[in-house]
Amino acid sequence: MRYEIPARKKLVYETVIPLRWGDMDAMGHVNNTLYFRYLEIARVDWMEKANCGVNPQGQGPVIVNAFCNFYRQLEYPGDVLAKMYVSDPARTTFETWCTLERSDQPGLIYAEGGATTIWVDFPQKKAIALPDWVRDLVSGED
Predict the structure, then answer these.
(1) pLDDT digits (tens, 9 = 90+) for 62-98
(2) Distance from C-alpha of 83 to C-alpha of 8, rounded to nearest angstrom
(3) Domains in the chain, start-ordered, CATH in brackets?
(4) DSSP 60-82
(5) Cβ atoms within 10 A of the Cβ of 123, count?
(6) What b/e string do you get for 40-71 counting C-beta neighbours within 10 Å, with b at 16 or more?
(7) Are 53 and 96 in contact (CB under 8 A)?
């Protein structure tokens, strides 16, 4: 099953991630599991820069699902340009989306993925409403 990234979304972050020789598998391309790591790096970096990281004694984001669509094989050497987007704030959740390009081939998407993020009160171990500042952060479009 292929999931589509929506047209209505808000670009919130970009980062460059170096491809490492050790990221490649026996087939000579970056192992599929690493694409999820690149998506995670972009998402966590953005969340930390936006001051909405995890606080085990308080509240914060938890990923409840994730997906990745693979279009082209990434190969060493090079750098990945990850672009993070957000959309669709609901009562307790919002969506994150990410495209992966090679920095030397801007605009050519190698993979794209997303994750549903739920806001959680960690001591209570339950979902809570998105704080207004988070809702403002993830609302709107480019």
Answers:
(1) 999 999 999 999 999 999 999 999 999 999 999 999 9
(2) 15
(3) 10-138 (3.10.129.10)
(4) EEEEEEEEEEE-S---SSSEEEE
(5) 10
(6) bebbebbbeebebeeeeeebbbeeeebebbee
(7) no
